[in-house]
Structure formats: C-alpha cells, structure tokens
Amino acid sequence: MEPRLVGPGPYRATRLWNEIIELFRAGMPLRKHRCRFKSYERCFKASEAVDCLHELLGSNQNFGPEVTRDQTIKLLKKFLKNHVIEDIKGRWGKEDFEDDGHLYRFPPSSPLKSYPKKLSCGKEVIKFPDWNEPKAGTSQEHIPVKSVTMNSEMWYKRHSIAIGEVPACKLVFRRELTQTNIEEIWKSMTLSRLQKVLGLDSLDEVLDTKLVNSKHIVQNVYNVSKQGIVTLEDKSKELPHWILSAMKCLANWPSCSDLKQPTYSGFERDVFKTIVDYFGQMKEPLLTFHFFDIFVSVLGLLQKPSKAVDALQISCLLLPPENRKRLQLLVRMMARISLNQDLPPLSESVRTRTLMVQAFSRCILCSKDEIDLDELLAAKLVSFLMDNYQDILSVPSALKSSIEDRVAHLQTVQIKYAGADSDTTLPPPSFCHQISTDEFEYQRATGSQEPLAALLEEIVMNKEISVKDKKKKLKQFQKSYPEVYRVRFPTPETEAMLFPEKTKQKPPILMWALKKPFQPFHRTRSFRM
C-alpha cells in the first residue's frame, strides 16, 4: 500500500489516523519469536515496531523526516491503548509501551476510527438593512449633489435619457451600517475567503461557524500595535509581567534590558523552564479545541507554502484576541531563540529548534480526542509557524482592503436603473477554482473509496451476524470493490486472521476399545457339587 497525500477537508485527522494504521499493518514484518521457552507466531519486538513506524512516518509526505523517535514511541503507546496492537498474551488498554524487546502482535482487526456524523451547520444569512428605501423624512430632492461642469459627452448622456435611449433611474440612499452589521460582513467575507483558499465546497465539516465570534475578527484586525501585536481591551487577560520579562530575556539574549545579568551558571535554563511550565498548565491550547479541525485541514496545504500561509493567516484571525496575542509573543520568542547563536544551549541532548517544538507544540495545538495524531500534527504546524510567523501572524492586507471596499460600497449613495441590482458592481465571492488533473483524479478516488472503506470496516466489526453471513458479505464486497478490499486485507494471512480456525479436540480413547471385540454370551451347564 503506497502512502498518499491527505489534503485539506473534513476529518483530516481521522483519515490520517486510519491511513497510518493500515500502512503499519501492511508494512510491519511479522515472524516467529521465542519468549520464556515458548514460541509465538506472527509477532514483533517493540524496538522493531519503533524502527518500522519511524521509517514509515519519515517517508510519508503528510508527516516528513522531522518526526522523532520519541514521537513514534508516543504514537505506539496510543496504538496499544486503543487496541491497534496487543501484547502476545492479548493484553492492551494501557500506555506502557517501551522501546525494548517485549513482544507484540496485531489483533484480528485493528479498530479504524469511524467518521463522525456531524449535524450540518446551516449557513448564516447576514441580514442587512433595506438600503433601497430611504429613511423616513428624507427625500431624494434634499440629497446634496455636487455641481458638475457639463461637457459634450455628459450632455449626450443626459440628453439620451430624455429621448429614452437609457432606462429611467433613481438615487438609492444607503442607511448607515451599525457596528454589528460591519462585524457580520467581516465574518462572512473572512470565512468565504478561507473556504476558497482551502478549496472546500463548505466549511461545515471542519468548522462550526456559529462558534466564530465576529467581534474577535475585527479586534484582531484593528486593535494592533506598531509591531503588529494585538492590544487587548481587557487588561486582566494580559500575560503576567514576570512571564513577559522572562520571554523578553531569552528572546533578546544577551541584551536583557529589564533583567539583571545572570549571576550563576544555568540561569537561562531556569528561565526557559519557567516559561515552559507556565504555558504547559493551560487548560486549552492557544489555537483552541474548537478550531482544531480547521488548522489540521490547513496542514494539507503545506506542499504549497504560499497557500498554507494565506490559510493560516486567515485562520488565526478567528482566535480570541488574548490567544492571538499570546501566540504572537510565544512564536516570535521561539523563532528568535532558535536563531540566537549567543544563547547557551538549553539542552545537552536536543537541538534548540527541536526543543522549542517539543516544549510548546502541545500548548499551541492539541485535540480533545486522545485517539489522534495531535503530537505529530502539532509539531509540523509549529515548525511551519516558526519559519513564517511574520507573515502568518500579520493582518492580511488584501482581505482587509476588499472588506473595507465592500463596506464603503454598501454605505454609498448610488444610481439604480430600473430592473438592475444596485450591488452588481461588487460581485459575491466566487467559490470555484481550477485544479490539476492529478488533484481531480485523487479527489474522485478518495471521495468514493473512503465511504466504501468505512462500510467494509463495519462489516468486519459487526458481531451480530454469523460467520457464514459475514464471509458471504465479504466475498460479495471483494468481487464488487477489489481495490478497497485489497487495502484492508493486503495478504491472505490478514484475511485468515479474521476467522481463526477452531482446533478440533479428539475424543478420549475409551477403555473398552482396547479390549477384544465383544464375545457373545454362551450358556454353560452349571455343575453342582
């Protein structure tokens, strides 16, 4: 089974989880091992599993070579806890997997995650005031009109109206937009732009738009300092002064302005540990649980860095202002520390950049669901953030200009001709974009194969049907969809493991069977003494 690029879209984390399980089951070598004077067939050592999965993740373009061995061990712990693997005695459910010589095996069928059935979030219709009707007490005659110097072309246009060459028209007086109207316009156009960049037909499956606060978007755009950092209206949500001082100390090392120079060896490591402990005790990541799916979808665009930057730039506008500010300060500090050659090493065994990713990735992005690849996905996202934080965490100027133009257009007095729409000068956002032939073929294949794979897994895991009916259904499925069936059961051995043969017990040998055949009873004459 060849790994494929999982692009943006609904349930990307689930799709990645299922694909890694299928690749691991198909690629892990199984052989006979001995343990405590007993032989076990079709199993593997823990260290062999780490080697195989680490190589598999490193060569997979969804994760890449930056995946560490420690991250691979953490993933295998999750596999053991969720019965993707089990020990040779059939035990699972705990995260006690270690990189050692313990023996493990695959159960007859590793559980794939099912795709959740989300309720479709209806698209919110923004209700604007009826601008075609003037305010009460306002007439078109009292609208101030700027005097215009008449030339021949303008005279012809006006004369043509009189003779009927141009349809009749009227002035449309716009009502003043409220702050709520403007915020809803920002929300609608921001989400439309994000949907277009991601190339999705709808955001319903990756984002609950009702959880997007329009006030947060406007505050993140306009309440910023000269350095582009968000300024908070509620000062109680600011970072503590001592944490800011610690972050500035390491970010500007060795020129610390508000701290005295260290007086002992290892001072910088103690400061770093203080920062890690503070961000590590947060109950929710900076990118929030609600937006986990949307940021995981953006990771599918990392093969196209410019698109990924655009998508992350827009997605970060949806964050609460206090989260966005903390993210800006934290990622900027991480990037500066990674590039600072004057800062002493903060770890003896790990490179500074890798240490930054390992220390802060979970406080930036993680999932509520423990059956997820959140550590690997978070590490990939944080690495990309550190490399492009100046662009990603700035206000998207093109989006800002287009929305401001739209608001100005809706507030402008305009001429409306009979039978024409006054808003046609600014067409609604388009959701179509051209894709390559390869992308089309991939979307067509995955769009049909994923539901079929889920159907096959449902047949496999169904315990209510008899073995005979299950074999019959699987045979029909194999005949109709051989490619999907081959992915789930790449070898005859994997198929055979689903129906383990029951060992027939031989009946016990009866004692009378060892004796001579039964002899008929012969009457004999009794002798009396």
TrEMBL record:
GO molecular function: GTPase activator activity
InterPro entries in the cross-refs: DEP_dom, Rho_GTPase_activation_prot, RhoGAP_dom, WH-like_DNA-bd_sf, WH_DNA-bd_sf
Any Gene Ontology biological process: positive regulation of Wnt signaling pathway
Keyword Signal: no
Rho-GAP domain mapped to chain residues: 201-393
Entries under CDD domains matching the protein: DEP_BRCC3, RhoGAP_BRCC3-like
Keyword Aminoacyl-tRNA synthetase: no
Alphabetically ordered keywords of this record: GTPase activation
Entry-linked PANTHER family: DEP DOMAIN-CONTAINING, DEP DOMAIN-CONTAINING PROTEIN 1B
Protein name in UniProt: DEP domain-containing protein 1B
